Amino acid sequence: MKKKTVSLFLVLSLALTALTGCGQKKDDQPQTVPATVPATQAQGETEAAGGESQPAGDVAQEMVFVLNNEPDTIDPTITNNSFATPFLINCFEGLVTYDENGEVVPGNAESWDINDDLTVFTFHLREGLKWSDGSPLTANDYVYAALRVLTPATGAQYVNMISDYVVNGQEYYEGTASAEDVGIKAVDDNTLEFTLKAPCPYFVDLVSMWVYFPVQEATVEANGDKWTTTAESYIGNGPFKVTQITPGESYVLEKNENYWDAANVQLEKLTYRYILDVSTALTAYENGEVDGVRTIPSSDLARLKAENAGVVVAPSYGTVYYDINCSKEPYNDPLVRKALNLAIDREALINNVAQVEGEPAYSFYAPGYVVDGKDLTEGRPNFDLSPTADVEAAKAALAEAGYPEGEGFPTIQLSFYADDNVKKIAEAIKEMWEQNLGITVEVSSAEWAVFYDAVQNGNYEVAAMGWSADYVNPMSFLPLLYTDDVTNNSFYSNPDYDAIVDQVKVETDPSKFGELVKQADELVSADYPMLNLYYKSNTYLIKDYIEGVYMTSSSNIYFKNAKVLAK
Amino acid sequence: MVRYFIKRLGMMLIALFLIILVTFVIMHSIPGGPFTSDRNVSKEVEEALNEKYHLNDPLPKQFFDYVGNLLHGDFGPSYRFTGKTVNDFIANGFPVSAKLGGVTILFVILASIPMGILAAIKNGKWQDMLVMAVATIGVTIPSFVIASILIYIFSFRMGALPSFGLDSWKGYVLPVITLGGYSISYLARQMRSSLLEVMGQDYIRTARAKGLSEPKIIIRHALRNAMIPVITVLGPTVANLLTGSFVVEKIFAVPGLGVHFVNSVTMRDYTTIMGVTIFYATFLLAMVFIVDVFYCLIDPRIKYD
Predict the structure, then answer these.
(1) How does the average pLDDT of chain A come out, rounded?
(2) How confident is the model at residue A543 (pLDDT cuts 50, 70, 90)?
(3) Exposed (0-12), middle (13-18) or buried (19+): which is B74, by Cβ within 10 Å?
């Protein structure tokens, strides 16, 4: 058991920050730092039962993984909460899944056919698929789950991920179409057919999302909303199954022998332990009480990396930015927005203020989507921005907008939500703007619910925000600036951009698709609709005696290939 | 006296009703709702959720529906944690918090009262100074700081105790000290000052004049009276400790009730806010009531007419 010398002061200040934050990191996405912290822990020396598939022989294939946030539910059809992903991804499997290189690979479906105009997707399920209770899993289960998502009474939150694409999905949700009309059909037990409203080149990416996962009709109908709350009724089809639930404390997952690829699953037991306080989780990890931590307190990141303590940096398909209310004076002037963008020292924000892993961002569209072997953001211009602030250019832009030396510029209201890291960044931005532009900035914070309510209603000027893609495709970003989209909190509107996005939506040729995305991105980013800060990375801790754990750019962590080596 | 207690009981019910009403009104008047924080939720999904949980009904109807269910012991479903009810939260969380709190109460009583007595007897001497110094530290240093120091020393440096969880008896040590720190200090000071005050009274002089030994005077005569202010404080303290602390439960990863007090508000989980508030209020009122009964037992001079 190794003990690191950390000054007492450090631990204290850490606890203080953790507390003032009080874990209000709301739901996953619109926040700057991922808030879940899984950690793993080898549980004693006890031999795992039924260990004949273990290559390491004498090492128990068991680990404990700490999570820092409780998801609202672990029902894949209901939730849109990323805190649920450690359960959804490891207890379920969709038609397709991701491998450790972040590429789509067959999951429950062994192959699929797509018609020429990309509107009919036919998936062929593997033979002999089973639920974790041993009952057969058929294409009908997929249909049942999708219809459950499209039923308002269930309170499903990711409805639009299906209803926007599938024929009559929206109509079924509104009650004007019957189940037979919905474009999701079980042709036979092993064939599932989706008929789409419009061509969708990225539909295969989309069905990797948990909202397209199957759920077992029998258990859902028998237990209602409570089917996720007991180990017996939480039936899945993934590499692991839940065998024990201690509310608020831990979930024990064990290898699911009925998983189609069970022969290749080596981990026998995976315990998720909730430790809401990130500094406690880190102490537990450093003490060897747990084997990994999903969220690393930012003030410790540099030290842990230097000590080779097992920091894993996984690129994430997401951006941290500030929304600028483009519908308000003077922010409706692109020059003003340009000046605000130029006056920010992104490098300092990333390395000194937020102390996170990240790349300076000049556009809202993050790197991470590859067409023809090239990331779409490769060779993208910087839109006159640089990692550090360009004070002269910023002043010039502001002068051009009619505010020389910041004269006559109204006080900027900079709002953020109660979170420690977000606060640090907001204060740094205030300072940068005041110093570099000679304007005054007033910062104000509110807890998330109040803050977000104001942002959605346009009652703000500049507001802290962020975005993590739901699925790995540019289309998970582009709507952010599409006129009147529900996620367009900048209230930006540009008919030219909208027109290109409309084309992107229906473009079937991958390279043309890529070109259009680039075009849209470059058009809109040259208009500075937001204050982009940095592209996110996910970081988590895992001990070096565990291998095979991987995280995709949509922040999903996979334990399917995990293996415990000798310590 | 029986009439007095019946009256007290009636007052308690009225107080409880007012607490429910005020909490309900305040809760609904703060901005945001249970579903506003999900960024992807479109208007129509929010509508569907409001429909599912009857949040579209007029507020008075919602209130009386709620009170109606409450009379059947039903705190309602959690709006934020699908498939879970507030009864589940209380049924799962309270035993954990109460167990930790119970051990803490025992620890607090066994530590604070002797400390206070010692300080009072040795008034002005080094023992008094020591107890008061410790008590001052306990009152002034916030529990999360104490927790961090304890974790640093006992888990991180020495590796003697686990840094989280209540998996074995060892897990209780640090949370109990953290949780009890403030109460011990507060009660020890209370004990000391009230005992000092009592010791200066005439009847103690009489007892001394009678030739009674000092321990007898303190135990038989002084303590009885000196306990009254202590017990007054002890009532709410017991209610606080048994229903769990947000800070301690968060730092030590204890799956108790305390965490719901804060998280339910930030998440606008209406039913959970109501549920834990009512639960805590009932507990607190009951403890205050019990304290009143205790007064009669301790001090025969107190009579309720």
Answers:
(1) 85
(2) very high
(3) middle
Q: Is A219 on the interface with B (CB under 8 A)?
A: no
Q: Do B253 and A287 touch (CB under 8 A)?
A: no
pLDDT of A37 reads 33
Q: How far is B228 from chain A (nearest CA, A)?
A: 36
Please report residues of B whose CB lies closer than 8 A to that of A453. 31-32, 36
3 state DSSP class of A413: strand
User: Can you tell me the distance from the alpha carbon of A534 to that of A349, in angstroms, rounded to the nearest whole number?
Assistant: 9
What's the mean pLDDT in A237-257?
93
**Best residue in B43, B82, B161, B248 to probe A by mutation, most A CBs within 10 Å?**
B82
Least Cα distance to A146 among A188, A209, A85 occurs for A209
User: Residues 108-167, chain A: which have Cβ within 8 Å of B?
Assistant: 152-160
Type of residue at B85: T
Pairing of strands A563-564, A557-558: unpaired
CB contact under 8 A, A284 and B163: yes
Identify the band that residue A47 occupies on the pLDDT scale cut at 50, 70 and 90: very low
Closest-CA distance, B39 to chain A, in angstroms, reads 7
Sign of CA dihedral B245, B250, B252, B258: positive
Tens digits of per-residue pLDDT, A368-427?
A: 888 777 888 888 888 989 899 999 999 999 999 989 888 889 999 999 988 878 899 999
What is the per-residue pLDDT across A74-109, written as a single tens digit (0 to 9) for each?
A: 999 998 888 899 999 999 999 999 988 888 899 999
For the whole prediction, is pTM greater than 0.95? no
Residues of A in contact with B164 (CB under 8 A): 275, 280-281, 283-284, 289
Of the pLDDT bands very low, low, confident and very high (cuts 50, 70, 90), residue A25 is very low
CA–CA separation, A34 and A552 (whole Å) = 14
DSSP strand pairing (A269-274 vs A62-67): parallel
Q: What share of chain B is helix, strand, coil (3-state, %, to 5)?
A: 75, 0, 25
Supply the pLDDT for residue A357: 86
Bridge partners (DSSP) listed for residue A244: A252
Shortest distance between the Cα of B77 and any Cα of chain A, in A, equals 10
A59 and A193 Cβ atoms separated by less than 8 Å? no
Are A452 and B36 in contact (CB < 8 Å)? Answer: yes
Terminal CA-CA length for chain A: 11
